[in-house]
Specification:
7-stranded antiparallel β-sheet, Rossmann fold, alpha/beta, 609 residues, Glutamine Phosphoribosylpyrophosphate, subunit 1, domain 1, binds 2-deoxy-2-amino glucitol-6-phosphate, 19 helices, single chain, 8-stranded antiparallel β-sheet
């Protein structure tokens, strides 16, 4: 995710403080950096593509004059990672500079409106429209202050944003506003600091004040004023004294990146619902025309593809073939051809097995489509069309938030394709789209209500010599992912199968007390699943079930159960149902004294074949 920092100093160089503070936000992931300051009533801007040290080497970020400024590290969502798209962005008159973290959903229509009003744009970003909106407001009401012009502008924005604005119009102020993307204020006797995250200014001050959703803050060297965007009512809030170490601050106070990222899923799932229609439509058009569709990935991303094969089949009647990337060339290298379409899924966009599969398919004239979390990654460069899942950087080696985002994007693609093919009624489409919008809240509920119960289950079974994960239908993909998490993070030997497969061999492993995790959405396979549970129970297994709230039948059959909100459609169920399995793996690892962030033998991105 992008990083923002701004400061108003009583004296000294704003640009060198911004430079140093942006370095402390590097962990958020980024591909370009920029700084703007105000001096002699002029905007001074330096920005470029690349890491902070590289850009500083080229441009010397510290020599911008002035005691007030804003800076930004960009994690590309709209527009490639190029200098022209890096922040700060300015208006036509070069009097207003804006930095932004988030996704503006309605930027296309606002951009057309502003272009019709004579505004010229130079970047492909959604952010640039904010600078022109503010300029437009000021030109319509010159007597309005900068804060009012920013207030009017953000009222028109739909989506997530944390912005900081400076301008020659009022060169002693920074105006910020927030909706969903994080924003915190720090201050001490030397000045005021605004940032995406506390680590940016923790070495300078431990006095922090969170800006909440729907608030605008007007900062000057003598103080600040917070007001509600909706009705301009003033807000007063006491600062908190932060007692985190800088290391803890990087994890927002969580002990590990993995648990931080599991908890980020409501936000990242909301961001994943704000993708650009254009790319989703384009990819679904290619899928619609395809003769053979291969879903190619590794590890967790492969499990997303496995789930997607059920989504595409059930919703769009499109047959797709999920294939392990490491096997693709052996299995399909000779048969893939000009009529084939490859949808490669890779959160890093750099996994060697996935990229070599893509290269092989490309050499045989297949169409390459990409789904990734990293804009500018190799996969984005080799894909005919790609879509960014917008999960923000994932530091933990275990894929958690990127998995649920991949599932959300794939579900959105399946929905679009089914609409294009007229395979489901408009009512069913609307129902599924509404349910997809409720998923972030469902995940929030699961984390807040079930985490303690899952901790107890982890404690109870931490010595188990083997775990089983079973599910039917699309829940088989969820079971495979739950198994991978427990294996890679807690080093517990685990098995996963479609529940119907157990009696074809694996059930011979069942002994008394062996934990068997069943994934039990109330879908078409619920009834058959009950008999699978009975089979395992009859052989002494300990039944741990992930059920919908109110599923009294399976609750009674279970030794332990975890509840997720009821009413989630089958094809969306892997998203909420996997969250308890992520937490189970995390808490078993803690019970075993392991560090979930750095599992042995594993790398976050496997760039070797
Ligand atoms: C998942 O927890 C692992 N870190 C691993 O299986 C990962 O999903 C796999 O290496 C694929 O990575 P990618 O999505 O970046 O291609």
């Amino acid at each position: 995710m992008c990083g923002i920092f701004g400061c108003i100093l009583k004296k000294g160089s704003a640009s060198s403080l911004i430079h140093a503070s942006l370095k402390r936000l590097e962990y958020r992931g980024y591909d370009s950096v920029g700084i703007a300051t105000l001096y002699n009533n002029q905007l001074q801007i330096k920005k470029g593509q690349g890491k902070i040290d590289e850009v500083h080497q080229r441009l010397n970020l510290d020599d911008l004059k002035g005691t007030i400024g804003i800076g930004h590290t960009r994690w590309a969502t709209h527009g490639a990672p190029l200098e022209i798209n890096s922040h700060p962005h300015i208006d036509c008159t070069n009097k207003i500079a804006v930095v932004h973290n988030g996704i503006i959903e309605n930027f296309s229509e606002l951009k057309s409106e502003l272009e019709n009003n004579g505004h010229n744009f130079i970047s492909k970003t959604d952010t640039e429209i904010i600078a022109h909106l503010i300029e437009d407001n000021i030109s319509k009401n010159p007597k309005k202050g900068l804060a009012d012009a920013v207030l009017e502008a953000v009222k028109r924005l739909e989506g997530s944003y944390a912005i900081a604005v400076i301008s020659t119009i009022e060169p002693d102020k920074i105006i910020c506003a927030r909706n969903e993307s994080p924003l915190v204020l720090g201050y001490n006797e030397k000045g005021y600091y605004i940032a995406s995250d506390i680590p940016a200014f923790l070495p300078i001050t431990n006095k922090a004040l969170v800006i909440k959703n729907g608030e605008l803050i007007n900062i000057s060297a003598s103080g600040y004023e917070i007001k509600k965007i909706v009705d301009s009512t003033l807000v007063s809030r006491e600062p908190k004294i932060i007692d985190w170490t800088p290391e803890m601050a990087l994890k927002k106070g969580y002990p590990h990146f993995m648990i931080k990222e599991i908890n980020e899923q409501p936000l990242t799932l909301r961001n994943t619902l704000r993708l650009q229609d254009h790319y989703l439509d384009l990819i679904s058009t290619f899928l619609d025309r395809a003769k053979d569709v291969f879903l190619v990935a590794c590890g967790t991303s492969y499990h997303a593809c496995l789930a997607a094969s059920y989504m595409f089949s059930k919703l769009a009647f499109l047959p797709t073939y999920p294939v392990y990337a490491s096997e693709f060339i052996e299995q399909h290298g000779k048969s893939v051809n000009i009529d084939s379409t490859i949808l490669a899924v890779s959160q890093s966009g750099e996994t060697a097995d996935t990229l070599s599969s893509v290269t092989c398919a490309q050499q045989r004239a297949a169409t390459i489509l990409g789904l990734t979390n990293v804009i500018g990654s190799t996969l984005t460069r080799v894909s005919r069309v790609y879509v960014g899942q917008q999960s923000g950087p994932e530091i933990g080696v275990a894929a958690t938030k990127t998995f649920t985002s991949e599932l959300s994007v794939l579900a959105q693609l399946a929905l679009r394709l089914s609409k294009k093919r007229g395979k489901v009624s408009q009512d069913e489409m609307d129902h599924l789209s509404e349910k997809l919008e409720t998923i972030p809240k469902n995940v929030e509920t699961i984390i807040s209500t079930q985490a303690n119960k899952i901790k107890k289950i982890a404690k109870k079974y931490k010595k188990a010599k083997i775990f089983f994960f079973l599910g039917r239908g699309i829940s088989a993909a969820t079971a495979y992912e739950g198994r991978l998490k427990l294996m890679e993070i807690a080093y517990v030997p685990s098995m996963a199968f479609p529940a119907g497969e157990s009696k074809h061999g694996p059930i011979s492993l069942i002994e008394s007390g062996i934990p068997v995790v069943f994934i039990c959405p109330k879908d078409g396979s619920h009834k058959t699943l009950i008999s699978n549970i009975m089979e395992m129970k009859a052989r002494g297994a300990s039944i741990i079930s992930v059920i919908e709230t109110g599923d009294e039948i399976i609750k009674k059959l279970s030794d332990d159960y975890i509840e997720v909100p009821a009413g989630i459609p089958e094809i969306l169920s892997p998203i909420p149902f996997v969250v308890p399995l992520q937490l189970l793996a995390y808490y078993v690892a803690l019970e075993k004294g392991l560090n979930p962030d750095t599992p042995r033998n594993l790398a976050k991105c496997v760039t070797v074949k």
